[in-house]
Design brief:
single chain, 396 residues, mainly alpha, 82% helix, globular
């Protein structure tokens, strides 16, 4: 029989474990990857000679590194425990944030963004499984959603931080100061991860096939799952990477207002993963994920109006779908794998996601420079998002 003290102690351990995992994904994803969308205009004008194409290329550097990090996890998932992978990823992200925070050249910034991409992948793949292990199986959507909420909180923080600093400092200096503050937070989170997370030694065995494809093929509906994840990878990054630049360059928003809209995406994302995850636990992943993709496409098109009220509403909707989409896909994989197959299977699915988001920023930057605006970038995002909705509708 479980005593009240033992139950309270377990709840405390669960809360601390979830909080640390959320903070780790916040640093690796929100700070290490999505902050680039906030600081892009400042870094572009400061180090990249104002080129959207080059800024898109730097985004591609980050997501290419994410793909390589995914390959590393696919190899390491049978050799290193889940907690060890999180620690490696967070250390990589923290060091890379330090590089970006002091970069005085495009080369140093590129190295920092590359390291952030690698760290983001190494953390994101094991984090949902660590969260899910402390929840009942039927609440996997909530567990994974909580991990995604950490990304939303960090994204909101980055946007608000940039907006606050933009009102009080030279805009050219703001982008690097944002990275410096995030680096300090990352150090604190790294210390917490090293001291709080307990390594249970979970180590998936081999047999996942090349790149984990064999393990992925055991997941029910693995083809539509992979297509949906790839579509998400291509479509979401076009909106997040170029939202601030779109509102500033095309809609006449000030730096502070544009950053505030990015913060709204993050605030909504803090609730999107857990709310859509809980909803999917009740009505099913297929319906919820299809609706999420459709909503994201609609919100991207509404942002193009440039009307403040509509942009606010669309930013909130995009944030909900942004964190909800991957949470639902991940929850589907978690629910259809065991401790042995999860790591290789999720790594393989993330390969499709990684390839899509690797080419997306570069294409977006080229389109923006050739068209003279970001309109067609957001239209392309909506089209690919609807491809994702079609795939999601075919989940079992």
């Amino acid at each position: 029989m479980t005593t009240p003290i033992a139950a309270a102690d377990r709840r405390e351990r669960v809360v601390f474990a979830i909080a640390v995992v959320m903070a780790s994904t916040c640093v690796a994803q929100a700070f290490g990857r999505f902050t680039w969308g906030v600081v892009l205009p400042g870094a572009r004008d400061d180090l990249l000679d104002g080129s959207n194409t080059l800024a898109g290329f730097f985004g591609t550097v980050n997501v290419t590194a994410y793909l390589l990090g995914t390959l590393f996890v696919s190899w390491a998932s049978g050799r290193l425990s889940l907690v060890t992978l999180v620690r490696i990823g967070l250390t990589t992200s923290t060091v890379s944030l330090a590089l970006a925070s002091v970069a005085q050249s495009a080369v140093v910034l590129a190295v920092g963004l590359f390291g952030m991409g690698v760290g983001g992948a190494i953390i994101w793949i094991p984090a949902p499984k660590i969260a899910a292990r402390v929840f009942p199986a039927e609440r996997a959507g909530v567990a994974v959603g909580l991990v995604g909420s950490g990304i939303g909180i960090g994204t909101a923080f980055a946007g608000q931080l940039a907006a606050f600093l933009g009102r009080s400092r030279d805009a050219v200096d703001v982008w690097q100061l944002v990275y410096r503050i995030e680096f300090v937070i990352a150090v604190v989170v790294l210390i917490g991860t090293l001291t709080v997370l307990r390594d249970r030694g979970e180590r998936p065995t081999g047999g996942g096939g090349i790149g984990g494809i064999g393990a992925l093929r055991t997941v029910r509906g693995w083809v539509p799952t992979s297509v949906a994840y790839a579509a998400f990878g291509f479509s979401y990054i076009l909106v997040l990477a170029f939202l601030v630049a779109r509102l500033k360059d095309d809609a006449g928003f000030s730096s502070a207002r544009a950053s505030a809209m990015f913060s709204l995406v993050g605030i909504a994302a803090a609730f999107g993963g857990i709310s859509l995850g809980a909803l999917s636990d009740r009505i099913g992943r297929r319906v919820t994920l299809t609706g999420s993709f459709t909503a994201f496409a609609a919100c991207g098109l509404i942002i193009l109006t440039g009307q403040p009220v509509l942009v606010i509403l669309a930013s909130i909707g995009a944030g909900l779908a942004f964190s909800g989409g991957p949470a639902l896909i991940t929850a589907h994989i978690v629910a259809n794998t065991d401790a042995n197959s999860y790591g290789p299977a999720f790594s393989a699915a993330t390969l499709a996601f990684g390839v899509a988001q690797m080419v997306s920023p570069q294409i977006g930057g080229l389109i923006a420079d050739s068209a003279g605006s970001f309109t067609w970038v957001f239209v392309l995002s909506a089209v690919i998002s609807m491809v994702g909705a079609s795939a999601a509708s075919r989940l079992p």
